[in-house]
Amino acid sequence: MQNPGAPLAGRRKAVGKIQIGSRSAAPFADRREAGRLPAREFERFRADRPVVLGIPRGVVVVAAAVADHLGAELDIVLSRKIGAPGNPELAIGAIAEDGRLFLDEFLARRTGASQAFISREQERQLAEIGRRVALFRKVRPKVPLLNRVVIVVDDGLATGATMQAALWAARRDRPHSTVAAVPVGAMDTVDRLSESADEFVCLRVPEDFGAVGRFYRDFDQVEDEEVLALLKRHATAG
User: Fold this and answer.
1) Gap between the Cα atoms of 212 and 143, Å rounded
2) Whether the predicted pLDDT of 199 surpasses 90
3) What is the dihedral of CA 160, 212, 69, 190, to 10 degrees?
4) pTM strictly above 0.70
5) What's the mean pLDDT in 114-130?
6) Structurally, what CATH architecture does the domain formed by 13-77+143-237 represent?
7) How many CB atoms lie within 10 A of CB 33?
8) Cβ proximity of 160 and 195 under 8 Å
9) Nearest residue to 28 (alpha-carbon basis) of 198, 219, 199
10) Pairing relation of β-strands 101-103 and 87-96?
11) 200-209 burial: b if 16+ Cβ within 10 Å, else e
C-alpha cells in the first residue's frame, strides 16, 4: 500500500502537465499539513524564489505553509465564489478581483440561477473583495508578479470555480509561469482547470470526492485576524 503522506517524487502519474500524487482519500490533519506535503514537489522552484498566492481566508494558511517550506514570498489573490440559489455552498461560478466572471452555465441552468440573481451575487461578491483589499493590503502590499514563478494554492477542489478565478487573476499580471497546487481535488475539475495553468499539482485525487471538508480532520473557519498575522509575518520577513 502506498504511503499517502510520502513525497510525490517517484510515484506520481503525469497526465500532460497534470501531476497526481495518489488516489488516496486519507484526510489531512489540518491546512498546515496540507500545505507542507505538496510543497515538497516545488523544490525545483526554490532558487527562483516564487510567489505563493492564497485565496483568503482559509487557503492562506495552506499557502503560508508552502511559502515557509520554500522560503518564498506570500501574497493573496482575491476571488469569490458565486453560490447557487438556496445553496450558497454549491459554486456555480466565481468573480475575480478585476470583475471578470467565471460561470458554469450548465450548473447555473440546473440550479435555476437567473441572470438577475447572478448579477446581484456578482455585485455582492465584488463588494466583499473590495473590503478585503482595504483590509489585507494595509499589511501586505501587492507583490508584483511580472516574470515571476507564481504558485496558486487552494485547500481543495470540488467545482473549482474560485480557483479558476484566482488563476485568471494571477495570469493577468503576466508571470513567467503559473503553477496550480492543491492538496486534494476531483479529477474532472483538476483536468478542466489544468488548461488555465502551466502546471497543475494535486497530491490526492480520490475516486469519490464529495465536499472538501471531509478530507481534513480539522477544517475550522479561519478568521481575518489569522490571515493578517500570516501576511504581516511574511511582509516583515521579505
Assistant:
1) 29
2) yes
3) -30
4) yes
5) 94
6) 3-Layer(aba) Sandwich (3.40)
7) 17
8) no
9) 219
10) antiparallel
11) bbbbbbbeeb
